[in-house]
Design a protein that fits this description.
- The chain is an alpha+beta fold.
- It has helices at residues 20-25, 71-80; strands at 34-39, 42-47, 62-64, 67-69.
- It has two domains: 1-48, Pemi-like Protein 1, Chain: D (Ribbon); 50-82, no CATH class.
- It has a two-stranded antiparallel sheet. Strands 3-4 form a two-stranded antiparallel ribbon.
- The mean pLDDT is 89.
């Protein structure tokens, strides 16, 4: 883990502002979903990357039945119906 040397206070509502430099470097835009993890005494923030529920691919993800799925897995499912 790399330290940035940046600190931010937690406000009365428990919010922390992510510095613009970090948001730009990590391609985090307004309204992007962020996953929150804990590891012992650490809080880990990660930009949510939609991935296929079957193969975990991040390429060309589409919604199918409320789930994220890649075109390759979708084609495999379609072939099961034949």
């Amino acid at each position: 883990m790399k330290s940035t040397g940046i600190t931010r206070p937690v406000d009365e509502l428990g919010r922390i502002v992510l510095p613009i430099e970090l948001r730009r470097a990590l391609h985090i835009n307004v309204k992007d979903p962020i996953e929150i993890y804990t590891d012992d005494d650490k809080i880990i923030l990660k930009k949510l990357q939609r991935s296929c529920v079957f193969c975990m691919s991040n390429d060309d993800i589409v919604e199918f039945g409320g789930k994220a799925i890649c075109p390759e897995c979708l084609a495999k499912i379609k072939n099961l119906q034949d």
